[in-house]
């Protein structure tokens, strides 16, 4: 049987992908400054030695991943 994509289904998938982007955006902005392994590590786990350094943003990635997995589940589940 062919898959039927209705507007509500596409809207939910689109909103979940959009939420994943917005959840991970603080980490993306932190890494975009100078994308090296040290910056990725500092943005992900924080830099406690430097006053005013970036905070740990790994939870933003985790929440964004959950939203993205939910979008994939909604997109590919069988009705």
What do you see in this structure?
The chain is an all-alpha fold and 79 residues long. The chain has a domain at 25-76. 68% of the residues lie in helices and 0% in strands.
The structural class is: mainly alpha
What is the number of helices? 3
Sequence of secondary-structure elements = HHH
Largest sheet: none
Helical residues, percent = 55-70%
Beta-strand portion reads under 5%
Note the main attributes of this structure:
mainly alpha; 0% strand; elongated
What layout of secondary structure does this protein have?
Blueprint (H helix, E strand, L loop, with lengths): L6 H26 L4 H9 L12 H19 L3
Helix pairs in contact: 1-3
Write a compact overview of the structure shown.
The protein has 79 residues and is an all-alpha fold. The protein is 68% helix and 0% strand.
